[in-house]
Every structure is written in C-alpha cells, then in structure tokens.
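Table S5 (text form). Sequence records supplied for joint modeling of the three-component complex.
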Amino acid sequence: MLRFRRLVHTAIKKDILVVGGGPAGLSLVTALKNSALTRHLDVAVVDGQPIVERLGNWAANNKTTEFENRVISVTPGSVSFLEKIGAWENVVHERTLAYDEMMIWDGESGARIEFDAFDSATGTVATMIENSNVQQALLNTGNTRDTVIQAQVEKIHTVNGLPTVKLNNGIEIEARLLVGADGQNSPVRQFAGITTEGWDYSRHGVVATMHLEFDDFKQTAYQRMLKTGPLAFLPLPNATATLVWSTYPERAQWLKQLEPQAFTAMVNAGVRLDMADLDYLHSLDPKNTDEIIYEVTWRLNTLDEDDTLPTRVESIVPKSVASFPLKLRQADEYISERVALVGDAAHATHPLTGQGLNMGQRDVAALVAALELAVSRGLDIGSLDALEPYPRRAYLQNQLLLGVNDSLYKLYSTDCEPIVRLRTLGVQVLNKLGFVKNKLVEMAD
Amino acid sequence: MQGNKTEMAHFAALAKSWWNPRGPQRILHKMNNMRMDFINSTLGPSITDPNQNTSKLTVLDIGCGGGLLSESLARRHYVQSVLGIDVTPEVLAVANSHKLVDPKLTNLKYELRSVMDLESVKQSAEKPTFDIVTMFEVLEHLDDPKEALKLAMSKSSQYVFLSTINRTLAAYISTIALGEYVLNIVPPGTHTWSKYINATELESYVLGSGVNSESIWDVEKLQGCIYLPGTGWVRFDDQSNYSTK
Amino acid sequence: MQRYPGHVPLNTFQRLFLFASSGIAAYISPRRADLVATFGEMTSQPFFARRLKKQMLSDPVGRELLREKPRITSKTLNLDYLRSLPSNTLGNEYVQWLDKENVSPDTRLPVRFIDDPDEAYVIQRYRECHDFYHAIAGLPVVMEGEVAVKMFEFANLGIPMTGLAAISEPFKLPKSMQKRLFDIYLPWAVYNGFKAKCLLNVYWEKELERDANELRKELGISLPPDMRAMRATRAMRPKRVVRNVIRPDSDPIYEKSN
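The corresponding structure-token record, covering 948 residues in total, follows.
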C-alpha cells in the first residue's frame, strides 16, 4: 500500500495576522472583534510565549501574589478605549491603583510641580496596572483567547504578493494585512524594510517592586529629576509601589548587584539625598551592604521629615529588580503595502512621562478606525488606500510626544547651575498656572 | 454602440497604473473613498450597519474602469453581487486581473459593454433591473449624456448614483489647467471641457420629461466637492461638480 | 526655626539688608572680623556653601567630618602636646606658627546666618581651619600674608569673600609689597590652590603627628618663599629668578625654604 503526502504549499489564510501578543497586539485583536464593521475579519495573533497558559487564569491565581515589576501607567484615554472594546471590566481591579496627583521635583534645586486631576472628568491622572493584568483582561475579552497561536516566527516572506509568516511549528500563515506588534526589534518592521530614526539614551531603567513603611493616604505618583535621569515612584495598592529609576548603565549594573537591604537603602537615598551623596554611595563596593546602609542612614537622619515626599521603602520584593536600556525610536513609516506597525515596533520612548503603553493604545485605536473606514469603503484592508489614514492620525501626535519627552529628559539631565535656576524658575511659575497644568494633563491623555 | 474612440485610447494608456494608490491615479483612489462614503451615507444605517441589515443589494457599475468602485462595493456586506461594465478592453483586463488579488471577490463580474448597449443586460433571468446603478465620472466622457442617463435609470429599481464635472471656470482651472498641465496630478487628456455638465442641467435631465415621465425619480442628495492638493477632497453642499440621485 | 545652636534664621528682607550693610561696613573697616564674617556668610549662600558641602559629601574624609562635626579650639587641641611633638610634624609647625604670630585658635566667630546645619558647619570648619592654611603655607598674618592665603583659599575653595579680599586688599599696600604679591605670592596661591586637593576634606586633627612636608606633598602644595625672611631683607630679587620660584618643585629657592 502507498501513502501519499501532500507536498503542495498550503498556507493558512488570514485577513489580519498580528505578530506579538503584548498589550498592543491583544488590544488590536480585541478591538477588531468588538467592532461591528471589522468583526467578520479572520484575525490571528502569534506570540512565542505561552501567554494563554500563563495568563488565562491569572485573575484566579493572582489574588495574593506579589506585584510584578512590569507595571504600566494607563491614562484615562487608554482606559476608556479599553472600556470601549470591553476589556477593562476583565481587569483585576484590586491590583490596580488610580492616582489623582503627580509630583515632580528637581533633584538639584528641589523645585516642585504638582499636577492633579481633581477637576478632570475622571478625577484620575492615570492608573497603575501590571502588564500581565492588561494582557489577561484582553485575552479574556470576547474570543480574543481563541485567536492566539503560540509559536515562534521563523521567517517572513512574500508569497503571491502577500506577506507569509512561517512558524516554528511548521505552519505557514498568509495574511492580507500583517501587523507588527512585535516590540522594539520588530521582525515585521525589518521584513517591511522600514527604517527607524532615534538614539540610545545611554541610560538604563531599573525597575523593582517595593513595600513601603506604611500606606500613603494620598494616591500620588512621584518623580525626582536627577541629573542621571528621573527616578519614578509609582503607587500600587497595599503599601506597595513600583520603581523606575533611569540612570547610567554602570550604575544600573551596580544597583542590580546590591543585596535587597542595600537596594532598599539606595532607593530611599535616591528619593531624598543629594546627588553628591548618591555619587559617593555609587563609589562604594556594592557588596558592602553594611557600609551602604550606614552611610544612607546617617544622611537620611540629617534631613527633616518631609511628608510631601513618598513614603519610605521598607523592603523590596526579591528578584523583582531588573533593568532595560532606554531608547528613543520612531519608525520612518508606520505602514507599507500590507504591513502596519503598532506600539513599540513603531516607536520607543523614555519612560519619563509613562507614555509607552498609551502611545501603543492610541496607535491601536487609530489603526482600528482606519480599518473600520476601509471596510466601510470596501477597500482591501492591506492596501495603502486602507492603511493611509492610520499614520495620518497617529504619526504626528507620537512625534510630538517623543519630542516633548526628549526635551524634558535633556532639560533635567544636567546639574549646570544656570540651567537648574532657569528650569526651577520655569517650574515655579508653571506650578502657579492651574489652567496650563490642566491643559498639560489633558495633552498627555 | 461604441464608446468615444479618443477617450478609450486614453484610458487604455492609464490601465497599467490603475491600482497604484501612489501613482497617477492617486486622486481617483481618493475620489473612490469619497464615492463610497457618499453611497454609505445615502443608503443610511438601515442598510450599511452590519448590526441592522440582513438584505443584500445587486449593483451595476457603469464605466467601472480598473474596478476600484466595483471591488469596493463587492466587498460590502450589504452587496450581493456587482456587474461592472466598461468600453475599454485594456482597463477591463486590469480589473479582471486585480480581482484575483482578493480571492473573496467571487460576487464580482466584468463585461465589455457600452452604456448605450444596456438593453440585454440583466441581473438575472427573472429580474431585469439592479437595486443600484452607479455611473461615476462617465457622463462627461460621452457624446450623448442625456440618453446614457435615461438608459442607466431604466436599469435601476432603487438607486442611481452618478457624478460628473461642472462646466464652470473653477472646474476648468482645477481639472484641466491645473490638474492636467500644471500640477500633473491628472494625466493630460483625461478631460474635455465642452463635455462637462452643470448640476442644474443634470438635475433637469433627471427630473425632466422623457427620462422621468412617470415622476418616480427624485434627487435625494446633491453634493459638490473639489480637490485641493495637500488637503485632498473637500466636500460642500451646493455648487457641485459632482452630483447624484 | 532655629536649626542649630547659635543659628539666626532670617527672612528674605533681613537677608538682603544684612547682605548690603555688612558688605559696605566690611569694605570700610576690613579689620572688623565680625563684619567680614557676616558678609562672608551672606555671600556664600545659596551656591557656594552648598557646593562645598557637596565636595565634602563626595569624599570619605569630608563625610567623616560632616558626620562628626569636630571643632578646632584651644580646648580640643592640646597645644602643649603639640609643642612636644618633633619639629617636622604638622602639629609642631602649627603651634610654632600660632606662637610666632601670637594668635589663638579661639578667635574664630561662630556661624549664625546660614540655614542648613551642614552648610553652616562647612563655613565654620573653613574658618577654624584658616590657621592651618597659614601654617601649611608658612605665611604670616600680616596683610601681605593674609592676602596670599585668601587667594590660596579662593582658588582652592571658591568662597567669594576670600576672593573679594584677595583682590581688593593689595591696593591698600605699599608699591614694593604689591609687586612682591603680584610677582610671587598671588601666582603661587592661584597655582597651588587649584592644584591642591580640596582642603576642607582634610581632617587636620588626625594629621597633627604627620611629617608636614609629606602631608604637603600628599595634598599637592609647594611652599612659597619665606615671606618673613623676604620682608626682613627687603631685597627685591631679579624678576626672572623670582618667576621661576613659583612653579617647578625642583627650584633651588623652593628647596632652600624647606
């Protein structure tokens, strides 16, 4: 007897294939499935990680576990988008914290500026939420979960004029539209031959989950602008906060070598002590925990207690310390024939104003709007005609945010006295102008 | 009857670049978006909203060219089938080959035929007329637009969508002088000013006797538009060089 | 709110008033130590005291000083013990200098108008160490020597009052002294002040038993020609030779003065 094996090339056909199951990719799928106009499109999302397995029951399994260190700031605009596509109700709300105030202060002069959202419609500046919490909420909305294919992308090539993705499980998928939600090194972007502009900040962001001495009665996000980069202290429920400390790569490396108690001391130092103290502390042996704690304790005791600053850190969650390099990137194009880029694949920014995820959500909203329009006009969803409205809505706005972020970063990365005086004066004036501040809060949303 | 010879040669030359949205037909691609928006808004949500509508309509697209509008309509959930006709074999060849790019376009057919030769065209054996007849940017290319309009209307059971260019100074400057010769955004020879028809003329054709003897036709929506380089198509409500019913 | 013993908190108006009045008064009567000290405090805020504090915080010895905040007085320093030390030690040179100039470490005024306790200590420490700078440079308390030390301090520490004194005082001196200052001592002060390690980060009390020259070498200070000897001979050296004195450490005159 003979058995024949089919050798003919047969690829699975999809209308839209999304590469990358992070918040941007999953939001896109969820939004497309939620829209009357695009619901009929055959959509799949590919991710190399077992996201369904890991996050499918996250809500049930994570009632009491420690907060993860990948915490993101979601603006009211992003929240209402997630509400609109039906995902926000699936968020584990006990693990999120909406803050209504943001305090930013100058690490050199101490000049501060407070933004509050007491007058805004939502009363919220932004909501802190774990990355996994957003992902699991999206996975559990509609039939998003069923669109996920767990596999590594091996190759992307063009077959019969359509982008075709070869996966490591042998499956090939041919898409009328291929969406790159595949992060900063986006293979989809490389396939499309889209180049990026930008630079590295030669800074690393150090993240950690921290337990505070007591629960702050205010819901405030703090940011101290040090010449090495901003130190952000973002509130989570139950006397917990997340740290994002941007600093020189060698200092990030040094911080990562510290014992948990020494790391805790350094964070308290980073929030309160003079840059000269920090410079000195960084010159010590990272393994000399006692000396680090001794020096920090002495200096902290010379300070008057200032309850406008964040609550002191009591301990950090072991193994929650990690770091990543900071970059500014903007893809030269967000689209090409049959390809669209969203989220980090399209742009990367300094975490300074917490815009990373929100820019991705705005991309997704703009791309979905473009696709809805394309469907209503009967266009081929992968054609440039269909995709062109997307960058028109998203590109300039992102460029503006990237620019503002970058300027702010540069303004605060110096301790040159005249510049410190000028920015201090600017901030003092700005802090008195409530209406301008409200405008800024709106702009960031 | 045949289409106008010079016009046909001109469109044959355009065939190759028809589907390139960044090529010489870019404005046509943009105009197609506006046509679809116009059709959608005229039909209203009871037909275009996927949540409300269950009925499906048949379409005859007169002067389908490379098939921009035909494909667009064929993809809409409220369209059952589209028949596109044109007099230029080269552009029809483009339309037929481009159709294959989207295998889901099985409800779309093209025929080489003139608007003056609609008599034998039938949606099906039982039903001689179509729910929608479209005739965009066709009248200004014809020798006898009034007769063509009469024939088109005779083939429609519900809607006729059409458009043409106003015979005004503004239209001359924008479509011929600037569009074809100065800015080169439209290929030279695309338009012939003497064939342009004013909106009021068009309205009188539709409402006038001979075409509309039983007074069953009404002009439902009349809209003007102009292309501004750098901005795209801008719509305004009167003074059209683009109209429909 | 008083933040340390002797602290006098001021509001902005008082601060401005004191700044102007002490400045004028100190210029008219530069021998009034209290006026000079007050003007020194007014001009070292907000930048200079803070910068010095930062310099101290960046150095292990500076941090030790800020932590312990030691004071230099005739009580904390056992002068008799210092007299018993070998003559090449810093302690012995210092006490010999005190005896020769007939001054006491207790003549320093306490800081009153600087708000931050650490910054107040920085200025206090600078004042109390002033005699050590004289001793380590071997310069007398006469106006000429004072000007040289002030310039040395200004180059080393950047306290504005010291610079002001170093620039304004020489013109009150006779021509011959002016010439000596401009040719020898001011260039020596600027060069050594910049070259030397920040002297606020020296725990003088812990260096008393050390060989003074060894310490000078460690701090990067060369001795200037002996001013007292020069004033005694009143002989002007040829310019060319004198110029050479101030820079290379191997200069014969420099060697001789050791």
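Note: The interface with chain B takes residues 13, 36-37, 39-40, 161, 176, 375-380, 383-385, 388 of chain A (CB under 8 Å).
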